[in-house]
Amino acid sequence: MTDHSNSAKPWGGRFTESTDAFVEAFTASVGFDRRLYRYDIQGSRAHARMLAKVAVISDDECAAILDGLDRIEASIEQGDFEWSVSLEDVHMNIEARLTALIGEAGKKLHTGRSRNDQVATDMRLYLRDRIDDACRELRRLQQGLLELAEREADTLLPGFTHLQVAMPVTFGHHMLAWFENLQRDHQRLLDCRKRVNVMPLGAAALAGTSFPIDRHYTAELLDFEAPAENSLDAVSDRDFAIEFCAAAALILTHLSRFSEELILWASAQFDFIDLPDRFCTGSSIMPQKKNPDVPELVRGKTGRVAGHLLGLLMLMKGQPLAYNKDNQEDKEPLFDTVDTLLDCLRAFADMVPALQCKSDNMRRAAASGYSTATDLADYLVRKGMAFRDAHEVVGRAVRLGIDSGRDLSEMSLPELQDLAAIIEDDVFEVLTLEGSVAARDHFGGTAPAQVRAAIARARERMED
Ligand code: ARG
Prior knowledge:
The protein is mainly alpha-helical.
């Protein structure tokens, strides 16, 4: 990056001494906001075309501006654009280069515009694209979950509450639970996108402009839903960034919980799944180790995105209307949230369809811990016993099992009849794992048939 004195700064006119070198670096944002260049140029193109339409600039001037912007974009993409810290930010870097390239017409681009509405517009254009990226990755992950759920629709594993074996469930059903989390996440992103997709341009510094601008035309060119209603709000609002970070923090919270399960399941103690080697790393000292790094990192990165959300809330809480330089601080947390979210979604979308279930181990775990005790209680209720009495009887059966080291299905009929005379031979059907899950055969239940129906519905719901 090169250095310029104040005479080169677009706002240098009213100043009598150069900016302190440290202050220049301290206030500059070009080091991180240059990533907005494409959106800054997109916004400038639309602004120039609007200015020409309302005859604030001539068609020739507009053509020269568009040509200059094309050349700048190409040079940035080729990596030979020279960014200057003394030109502070992406906006002034590009504008200064435009004037250097095309002369007088370049100086007219900023008519009826301020960096305040410009930066808010750039951020919204940028975020709109990143939301679309995140939605695509979410969908890819959801597809992967459905694939896995379909493959393992009949696979049995213990369902847990309090991390204690509760009832048998099907692996497909378990994966569909995560699908639902992500379905809500997708809806949340689309909802957030509606409020991102509003155009600040035309608000200028804060109060609008005295030029006869056509904000609806600019909004149309940029594919915004509408221009922002109020100029003060347009330049000062960062709700859209906060909402996105909240949605991202929640997505990552979901992935973090899912990660925790994968880490547990991949441990020697559970041994329910095999994570493909390509998503794991080894230990430099313990040759036997295969560590679930990807889920661990996703779990870890969730904390920093939740931190960005809090950071943005704190950034805004003390700001009077309208624009304040504080707002420059919205970028790094937002960019890091975007990068982290997209990376984590990508890792999960790649990894999930490759998970391998160790169904024998899952089954064994489901068969332990008296996971069909509730089925026995339900059986007694169907035979006429009140649920509370049935609960008591089954509790005694479990006690007997613990004392004699056996599961309920391993007890003899006379032993069970000793506890409740109404028990008959058919009890053993309800005590099997397959019988237990098959019995939960209603909308939203874990029966394999319901899982298959839910997968079919899920595929349709993703089309909406
Ligand atoms: N770099 C600034 C930002 O990110 C651009 C807007 C600056 N506006 C101003 N009046 N200084 O917010």
